[in-house]
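= Protein in question =
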Amino acid sequence: MTKAIMSLAMARSGKELLVIAIEGGWGARRRLTEMGLREGAHCKLIQSSTSGPRVVLAGNTRLALGYGMCQKILVQEI
């Protein structure tokens, strides 16, 4: 059984994730790619809260992403 694809905004803290797609425009896709989040990349959601940024570990880099940006990133638990 395959795991469901969801937005990064819906993922739970502490989970290892695989980036499936980024659904933003050209600028958002470029910015995320430059920060290390690209399709096929592995990352880990370190912290998610209801009213604040989500903290994602991508490689050796910690990223703080707002809820709106997280909704554009489709991931799957691994």
Summary: The beta strands are 5-7, 16-22, 42-47, 54-58, 61-65, 73-77. The CA atoms of residues 55 and 64 lie 5 Å apart. The helical segments are 26-34, 67-71.
